[in-house]
Design brief:
The protein is α/β, with parallel strands linked by helices. Helix content is 52%, strand content 12%. Helix 1 (24-35) packs across helix 8, helix 3 (71-85) runs parallel beside helix 4 (108-135) and helix 4 runs parallel beside helix 5. It is globular and about 55 Å long.
Length: 295
């Protein structure tokens, strides 16, 4: 019996909400979507680059300052987007940050901040926009990470938050599929974003950790390749978006990755690497990038 083809819904003519749209993946995705005929509601707390991007993209883009840790802020932004564009077809919950340092050393406020943005922020984004998405039987893409199923020492907050984001998407899918809404999660290895570049510049230990990973885990993917995969995922309403594609094999082997055998190579260098990272974080005076430092 022949397999049925997945329905493809081109982004042309659709309305897409993107959080974390001022820089990196969110900015590049917004630009691509407008280029392919979509209208984009771009949300971020970083107003200057957000508004500059919206000005460049023209009437098809609306920039709204919104903090994903504040539900009322997201609800107000969604209302502006609906007033401007008439509704929302797709949500890309992309906003996210990372912290540095071991569980013993990371600033507790920084740990909470990561979870608040990466998990609670996803909930706020979806909660605010979901009635509109249900009305249009649209699609939600929650941006998780390869970190959801393979951990790295010194990044417990990020690992935990991205695993939480993935399972949020899984639970949401069970709740809204019968309403005609599709839900996916995106899982990327290292992408050449400002967040990754800043972490590598801040901490030699982070840079070394990436370089010492076995291929292909030590490779960095371009933002453009990531955007290609996201747009395809949106149009096909995929359950999973893997960037690069081999991340899907890691996902299937997550039990092995988290077994004694899978952890053996990391454990050989973890003790020394974590100590160096903690020393560097202490010298740096913060557990996140400068843009997201916690007072």
């Amino acid at each position: 019996m022949a397999k049925s083809r997945a329905v493809v819904r081109p982004v042309t003519g659709s309305v897409v909400l993107v959080t974390g749209a001022a820089r990196g993946i969110g900015a590049a995705l917004s630009r691509r979507l407008v280029g392919q005929g979509a209208q984009v509601l771009m949300l971020d707390v970083d107003v200057e680059p957000l508004e500059a991007l919206a000005s460049d993209l023209g009437e098809a883009a609306l920039a709204v300052r919104a903090d994903v840790t504040d539900l009322a802020s997201l609800e107000a932004a969604v209302a502006q987007g609906v007033e401007r564009f008439g509704g929302i077809d797709t949500v890309v919950a992309n906003a996210g940050i990372a912290s540095y340092g071991s569980v013993l050393s990371v600033e507790p406020a920084a740990f909470r901040r990561v979870v608040d943005i990466n998990v609670t922020g996803v909930f706020h984004t979806v909660r605010a926009a979901l009635p509109q998405v249900i009305e249009r039987q649209g699609y939600v893409l929650v941006v998780s990470s390869l970190a959801a199923f393979t951990a790295a020492p010194g990044m417990a907050a990020y690992n935990a938050s991205k695993a939480g984001a993935e399972n949020f998407a899984n639970a949401l899918r069970l709740e809204v599929t019968h309403l005609g809404v599709a839900v996916g999660s995106a899982h990327m290895c290292w992408v050449d974003t400002p967040m990754v570049r800043e972490a590598r510049a801040d901490l030699r230990s982070f840079d070394t950790m990436i370089d010492k990973l076995p291929p292909p885990l030590n490779r960095t993917t371009s933002v453009e390749s990531c955007v290609d995969a996201f747009v395809t995922g949106i149009e096909k309403r995929n359950r999973r978006v893997y960037v690069p594609g081999w991340v899907g094999a890691i996902a299937k082997g997550r039990a092995l990755m988290n077994s004694p055998l899978g952890e053996r190579e990391t454990l050989r260098s973890a003790a020394a690497m974590v100590q160096v990272m903690d020393d560097e974080v202490a010298a740096l005076g913060r557990s996140t990038s400068a843009r997201y430092s916690v007072d």
